[in-house]
Amino acid sequence: MIQFEKFTLPNGLRVIIHEDHSTPMAVVNVLYDVGAKDEDPNRTGFAHLFEHLMFGGSIHIPDFETPLQMAGGENNAYTTNDLTNYYIQLPAENLETGLWLESDRMLSLAFSEKSLEVQRKVVMEEFKEHYINKPYGDVWFKMREMAYKVHPYRWQTIGKELSHIEHAQLSDVKNFFFKHYNPVNAILVIGGHVHTSTVMQQVEKWFGDIPAGTKYNRSIPAEPPQQEERRMEVRANVPLDALYKCWHMDNRLHHGYYVADLITEVLGGGGSSRLYQALVKEKQLFSNIECYHFGSVDSGLLTIEGKLVKGVKMEDAEKAVNDELEKLKQEGISEKELEKTKNRTEATLAFEDMSVMTRANNLAFYELLGDAALFNQDREKYFSVTRDDILNYSRKIFDVKNSNTLCYFAENGSLN
Amino acid sequence: MDVLVDRKTAPSIKLPVDFTIELPVARQHTLSNGVEVYTLDMGTEDVLMLNIVFFAGNAFENKKAVAAATNYLLKNGTSKRSAFDISEQIDYYGAHLNRNCYSETAELTLHCLGKHLDHLLPVIGEIISDSVFPADEVEIYKQNASQRLKVNLAKSEFVANRLIDAHVYGEQHPYGKYNNLEDYAALQREDLLPFYKEHYQQGECVIFVSGKLPYTLISLLDKYIGSLPLRPRNKARVLQWPLQPAAEKKTEIINDPDGVQAAIRVARHFPNRHHPDFQKVMVLNTVFGGFFGSRLMANIREDKGYTYGIHSYLLNYIGDSGWMISTEAGRDVSKATLKEIYHEMQRLRNKPVTEEELMMTRNFMLGSILGDLDGPFHVIGRWKNLVLNNLDEGYFYRGIHIIKTVTAKELQELANKYLQEEAFYELTVI
What we know:
Mean pLDDT of chain A: 95
Helix content of chain A: 40-55%
Number of strands of chain B: 12
CATH class of the largest domain in chain A: Alpha Beta
Distance between the termini of chain B: 53 Å
Strand content of chain B: 15-25%
CATH topology of the largest domain in chain A: Cytochrome Bc1 Complex, Chain A, domain 1
Order of helices and strands of chain A: EEEHHEEHHHHHEHEEHHEEHHHHHE
Strand content of chain A: 15-25%
Strand order of the largest sheet of chain A: 1-2-6-3-5-4
Largest sheet of chain A: 6 strands, mixed
CATH class of the largest domain in chain B: Alpha Beta
Radius of gyration of chain A: 23 Å
Structural class of chain A: alpha+beta
Number of helices of chain A: 15
Largest interface: A-B, 80 and 78 residues
CATH architecture of the largest domain in chain B: 2-Layer Sandwich
Low-confidence stretches of chain B: none
Distance between the termini of chain A: 56 Å
Number of domains of chain A: 2
Structural class of chain B: alpha+beta
Shape of chain A: globular
Oligomer: heterodimer
């Protein structure tokens, strides 16, 4: 059970304080309610590019990093399709340095032309490093476009194409900042070796006078239920054929999300999981196979991906995957398998809770979902999943009409 | 503007150089067979990590790929349990059992909830004493390891990582050698069995356990591991091999004609942790490329935008070390990136770092160590480093002292001694 205090400043900033005196450190976590799903389809990748610009100096503080490093702090940030999150860890005595830095960049950035010019290049190199210069690096551009027709999950956080990043203008940066980066759209979590009453005063001092801003109410169209099987073939210069399959699953707050999460454990969690045992070890059709989902806030994708053993035909490999799913839909899982998935989940949650940084991250995330207290209900939600839930849910989602299949062929692969 | 808050002036801070930093003390135990165990009881969650280190890295193999294959296949079958049964037992209790093979050591690492340890240790004991390496498991491994290698060989960064070590240490040196497809093809079960017997069943090992530890820990370890014919670590052994570096200092390879980035590695040999310069160079390295505020990052990423990231670091080997600069830069700016790397070496040689930069580096390093010391797994990692390198906690405290007191002049002297362009091997893989 994670203890915390929650209050809201008059300007709308939600503040959560989580004391943990087993560490000498403090963390400052600021989550902004904006992600790649809030982007214009013709200017994708912007939320993430913007995250880089948050380190380019704020209105009163030209250099974000130096004072933080002087105080013994470290920081980083990440952007997803759903949100943007910034975090600092520093010795608890120097907490106020973190509040000073974060509050100033929430107040306003410096909007430096040089910073935009450099970070455009940095992000383009990031794009190349992870998505162009890698075998299979283009899979998720293609898969998302196939699986989503309406919802902005149809592009990745990095963006659809390099040119969108290349063409970002300083006016776009300013508009984006004032639309999304203000107290009413943010969640601040302070954790670690801190005292709630002192922190409350410090937070009021540094964040209290920042103008509230306007609440951003997104109107993202829900992805309509998929009604037909979707398939795509890709041929590229890669060493091995690979198979990717995705099915739409429920959103983060739905009971189905927890069931889907446990289904990924049954199919792909560990060396005794069904897909690994049947398809890598027994039938030797795949050299590796994974089953996972993305933890998305809105309806996400349950995914199976694997690389085929050289010489195995794509249709045989795919049929074997489908047979495993069919077996699950017919027979469900045993009581022991259910216990196993729950034990694994229990351990995963315990390991996550070790770090005050992860706890602060999670508190912010659950507050974004609606209430930080949801954090403490996760375990119970997993443990309430029954064998019938798994059976029924696998019947529901593993429907061919809900499936997206991408067959990735190695060019000239059949010759080897 | 609200006059009450002065946003231009940084709040007062307690400088990390004024902190007293203490390494939580690990307890040392000896099992009945003489194997040393270091334990660190720390943390509030019921989790622990059991790390068993064998001297079974690729330095000890007579045929390529044998050490890695033996390590990987440890949990793929004993005389009593199949690979599936072992995985099933580990997975059922929500545990993770990882294997890692390095140049000098090879490890088994168990992460689990403390309450399940007594169900898991019997399996660990069995893996160490009774693995049988079933022929079909060896064949599956050969096939899948080859496939993994094929995919990796399509990545310029993977190719660069293995070649730079070969250039610095030589292809026959344990740090420099790497496995090719034909090495996997030539592997046989008969190669693994004697290696397993010598380096695991009757091998030298040392154990590290951290987390919230059950009070029965040592008796459980003694029952399942202390009863095996393992040997304590031979502290007198010297882990060093002759260097056979490449003749050419600069190499450029086209791995993918359509590649849009260049994997750049610039590296040199460096002495091990016992060398008096080592800990001072850790500070110099931090200034050079060891963190976000470093010279390499500030110039090549934050000013020029040539790369998403550039880092320098000292390599974590026991016998010898190395100093590495690593980045993925745009293909069109790869030459310019190299020029700037050497330019930053030159700046460190020619001009002492400013007091402000040095102070920032000291504080950053100390803050980072302090942050590291709040988690049991990080703390035991530091102990493991000390133990495997035949060092004691005095080394940790000397390191802290050096971070607090090393001077700009000393750093400049070290830059002149080590950061010489001619001493570095340069490799670009596109």
